[in-house]
Amino acid sequence: MEVEVEMGGPDSQNKHQMEDLNQRLEQMEEDSKANNDMPSGQDPAAAAAAQANREEVDSRSVFVGNVDYSCTPEEVHLHFQSCGTVNRVTIRSNKYGQPKGYAYVEFLETEAVQEALLLNESELHGRQLKVSAKRTNVPGLKQFRPRRAGFRPRAATTHMPPYIFPPPYGYGKVPRFRMPMRYNPYF
User: Fold this and answer.
1) Which terminus of the chain is more solvent-facing, meaning fewer CB atoms within 10 Å of its CB: N or C?
2) CA pair distance 42, 165, nearest whole angstrom
3) Which residues contact 75 (CB under 8 A, 6 or more apart)?
4) Can you tell me the distance from the alpha carbon of 103 to that of 78, in angstroms, rounded to the nearest whole number?
5) Helix or strand holding residue 111 (H, E)
6) What is the rounded distance in angstroms from the CA atom of residue 60 to the CA atom of residue 86?
7) Strand 123-124 relative to strand 127-128, pairing
8) CA nearest 87: which of 64, 110, 69, 53?
9) pLDDT digits (tens, 9 = 90+) for 29-86
10) How many Cβ atoms are within 10 Å of 131's Cβ, its own excluded?
């Protein structure tokens, strides 16, 4: 008795589903490559171009500190409009949406930065603004902050000697005829 079983139905459907999934996966990978604005580590020319563009934008921008929390970008825009054409105003905020108290103003021309620096210590909403040229962050370069002199991290058990047996005079008691030990802040 020989039985023939037709396996074309479910397997062919699975095969078609797998092909469709592979096509959609390839399409998503192509889209992600096309949408990737960040310079990749493999392409140093693109990274250099992005860095040069960032430096050019930063040369046309100023940092504005001590901005009032109730100040809007439009008000900052109006305050710096006398310096030149303002391209963008960015007021930084924390993760809850509250302003951090500083802003960046980007101009269309680099000459406007020198005019904006003259507005240092001017008032907006009753607060004295601090205006300085925006600096460019260099990726991968962290400012070195040396440790304090004499600072050593303590281990968890350095302050407690191991418990072997109770002292003869009781815990924390020292006989009065002995000289006290030299001061050691870690014991």
Assistant:
1) N
2) 64
3) 124, 125
4) 14
5) helix 111-117
6) 10
7) antiparallel
8) 110
9) 887 776 665 544 557 888 888 888 888 999 999 999 999 999 999 999 999 999 999 9
10) 20
